[in-house]
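Write out this protein's structure.
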Amino acid sequence: MRKKIVAANWKMNLTLDKGEQLVNDILAAGLKLAEGHEVVIAPPFPYLVKIKQLIRNYPGISLAAQNCYSEKSGAYTGEVSAEMLQSIGVDYVILGHSERREYFAESNAQLAKKIDLALANGIKPIFCCGEPLEIRQAETQNDYVSKQLEESLFHLDAAALKNIVIAYEPIWAIGTGLTASAQQAQDMHAFIRAKIAEKYGREAALGLTILYGGSAKPSNAKELFACADVDGGLIGGASLVAADFTAIVQSF
């Protein structure tokens, strides 16, 4: 049975004190995670060590970084390597988020290098993919997402793929006033799983965790998570409010 995950992406939000309080409030909620269910928290880089300390005694709650660099080490002022993340006990790293692609021009080829470095350091990538509005309007979203998968992941062998989590982001439905329906989410998740099956076989595809990254919130999480190919969510804004995030986690 594939793992179910709800991941909190704090992005560039919260001070350390507020981040600590948020985690303590989530922990105080007494989440009861079923077997195979996991919560992942992705705070900004400066808070990783502290948040790791707060969650270390809570089984089923893991730590993620929001990014890493595409080189092993060197004169890259301001960047953070996968080896650095491994050294402080990071479990996951979010790679290819739509904001990284849009604001920092990250390419599929660069992301392939990041994927390799994360895996080499025992860190599981949460690889983000998804289409912008003009691609959805042109109804070419499947081709667009296929290219992202092929150019960033398909150099991996089947054994490495087992350590990958995919997050689908319908970029056109985030902050635009448009809404992606549960059926639209399911359709793309099913397409991604079928694409993986074509390359790696049915068993590998069925074992792959695919998260939904399209503004999930307490009011729609249950419907989204009920979809056959939606294995949880990569949560943005709602992850900054303890009550909202815990409600989403409890929607499984």
